[in-house]
Amino acid sequence: MDTLTSGLGLLESPRWSGNGLWFADWTAGQILTIGDSGEPQLVVEHRSLPLCFDFLPDGSPVLVSGPSNALLRLGADGGLTRYADLSKLSPHGCNDIVVDGRGNTYVNNGNADFGTTTPPGEVAPGFVALVTPDGAARVVADDLAFPNGMAVTADNQTLVVADSYRHQLVGFDIAQDGTLSGGRVWADLGDDAPDGICLDADGAAWYASVPGQHCVRVAEGGEVLARVAVDRGAFACMLGGPDRSTLFVVGATWPGAQHLMTHTDWDGTVWSAPAPAAGAGWPGPIREGAHG
Fold first, then answer.
1. Domains in the chain, please, with CATH?
2. Which of 66, 148, 235, 266 would suit a FRET pair with 251, their CA atoms being 20 to 30 Å apart?
3. Catalytic entry in 25, 96, 163, 195
4. Needs which cofactor (predicted)?
C-alpha cells in the first residue's frame, strides 16, 4: 500500500472525481480532495457526525448533515443549500449515502444512538431511505442493525448495504422507480464488521473493516478473493483513478465509540494500491472539471 497523506482526523467517504480523490475528515468537519500535488485541499467545512457525501449526476456534491437532519447540496460558489429534508424519517441523523445512475439518492440510518450495542429483538431499527431528484424522501427498506457503506451495481438493479452489526453485506432489488425489495444476505462475512464498500467490474465487492484493520474483496455469496491489511482501522474504500483500477483506502486509529468526542490521536491516513479489477457502478466518478 502506498501512503498518499497522513496526520489527519477520522477519515471517511472516499469518492473519485476527474480531478482526484475526495474524502471527508469527520473530526475536522471538512471535505477534502487530493489532486496531482499530493497535498489535501479544502473543499468545504461543515461540522457534522457523520459527514458522508456523494455526487449528483451534474457533479454537485450532496452531503449528509446531522445538525440539519437533511441532505445539503454544495454549489459552485461554495455555499450549502438544503437538497432534502430528512427530519421526518428519524430524530437520529443519517449515516451513509450513494447516488445511483438515475439520480436517485439512498441514505441510511441506524435509527438509534450511535455507539449502542446491537439492538435487541428480531427486527432491527435501521433503514434505507430513497431521496428522489425532486427532494422527496421515504423509507424503502428496514430491519438493518447498523447500515453503513452502500453501493449500486452498474445496471442500477441492485443496492448492496453493509450491515456492520450483523457482519453481512445485504442486497436489495431496485425497481424502476427506485424502491427496494427482495432483501437478502449478499455475503456473510463471518465475524468481520464491514464499513464503507465499493463494487468492481467482476461483480465483487470491496469492504473496509475498522476492527479487522483491512479491506477485503468478496464475491457474492461471501468467498474471499483478496485482502489488503493496514495498521489501523479501515473505514472505507473506493475504486478510482483514470481507469478506476486503483483501490483507495481511508483509515484512522479508532479509540472506540465512547472516546469519539475526546480522542485526538487519529493519524487519519489515505492509502492506495492496484486493484485486480476496475471499479463499476456507484459511487462512481464524476465528469472532468465538475466542482473543482
1. 2-280 (2.120.10.30)
2. 66
3. 195
4. Zn(2+)
